[in-house]
Hints:
The protein is α+β, with helices and mostly antiparallel strands.
Amino acid sequence: MLKESKGIRIEHVSKIYQDPKTGKDFKAVNDANIVIEPGKFVTLLGPSGCGKTTTLRMIAGFESPDEGEIYLGDEAINALTPNKRDTAMVFQSYALFPHYNVFDNVAYGLKLRKMDKDEIYKKVMDILDLVELSGMESRMTNQLSGGQQQRVALARALVVEPSVLLFDEPLSNLDAKLRVSMRTEIRRIQQRVGITAVYVTHDQSEAMALSDQIIIMNQGVVAQIGTPEEIYYHPQTQFVADFIGEANFLKGVLTQKNGDKGVLEVLGNKIEVENVENVGQDKECIMVMRPESVQISDAGQLPCTVQMSCFMGSYQEYHVNVGNQNVKITDFNPKHKKIYAEGEQAFIKFNPCDIHILEA
């Protein structure tokens, strides 16, 4: 660990822009309240225009909140310029100096701080070893691959020993295979150093692989904060369920309730369900079913008609109709299982604890 990491508090923060087409004000970020614990890797995730990049830029100091306050540790930082904040940013474009070699790119921030030459050398060589670029310090950046350039950008941010490391979609310019290996490296380095990291992406799998916590944003509002498991298995809204992974939605009415268990009526079928403590009796509900948590069978809770049956190697993919509602099923390792053909009548079955219930 380079030095003690700091947490971040965002309290009732809003950012207001003017729509260039209508001339009306709109809130790119609306009353955001976020707590990021020291040493945690937290990802801001959401569709384009949801406010995640604006939130990151406000933490960095490139944008100023119109309402609310941002704290780094116990220090309010709204009034501080980016260079006065104890943060460092890794950019999407790498932002390396093409006329500098790897060493000088990494050493740039230390030289600005008028650090002793011997100390600069030691710090740069240590950080290059950490990002596995030892022996490449004299290379020019245009001689490096995209992944190597991103490692240089990461080293340059880490070498100044910030309390918080900020990532603005740093892997979006890399090909798919390299993105996977680089996200593993970023997580390895962050855990080894123990630094607080805030990461912006629109890639769900990237967020799931990297994060201690995920912050889902939608239209400037924080929709949910939780671990990847909490976000995936217990989404608080239909938007979150639909945005993270794949989900099926079936409508029903909670006709009975006893504690966290109940009976849901779906298309005239009564189904035992769990985890209904936040749903009122006789209220319309939405069943959230992940494709891998549902099976197709000769008997089960809900009758269905197979609309599509497609072999995908490691799984058989089905689309079935339950009444007039479509359900996708991912049936893994189908080699020795019965394969249902298009047009066949069957049932879907599931364990009640694998179904998540939302009030409509």
